[in-house]
Design brief:
The protein is mainly beta. The chain contains no helices and ten strands. The strands form three sheets. Strands 2-3-4-8 form a four-stranded antiparallel β-sheet, with no helix packed on it. It has a three-stranded antiparallel β-sheet with strand order 1-10-9, with no helix packed on it. A three-stranded antiparallel β-sheet has the order 5-6-7, with no helix packed on it. A hairpin with a 6-residue loop joins strand 6 (63-67) and strand 7. The chain is globular.
């Protein structure tokens, strides 16, 4: 059974924003959309900086995305796919809320 890693309380993530976390030595961006949470790799493949957690969360043509704060590429919160360049994607991790706490499964 995969190990889960506690990130923070759900209330500590403002709605429609993200936070960065270190999980098993990897930087992860955890986003809150309503009461749901999503986790992606925090590394922006276009700038090489770990900052996707600081991106703007929104909806692009019906798809939940985060826009990189550097060059503004959009990444799907569900698949990690870059909307502007489908040959690029970021890792996606399983995240969930239990008892008001946010967890990411083992990476």
């Amino acid at each position: 059974m995969p190990k889960s890693h506690r990130i923070c309380d759900l209330q500590e993530i403002a709605p429609e924003t993200g936070v960065g976390a270190l999980v098993e030595g990897r930087q992860v961006a955890v986003f809150r959309v309503g009461e749901a949470v999503f986790a992606l790799g925090n590394l922006d493949p276009f700038s090489g900086a770990n900052l996707l957690s600081r991106g703007i969360v929104g909806d692009l043509k019906g798809e939940l995305v985060v826009a990189s704060p550097v060059y503004k590429q959009h990444f799907s919160l569900l698949t990690g796919r870059c909307i502007e360049d489908e040959t690029v994607n970021v890792p996606v991790y399983q995240a969930f809320v239990e008892g008001g706490e946010v967890f990411v499964l083992q990476i």
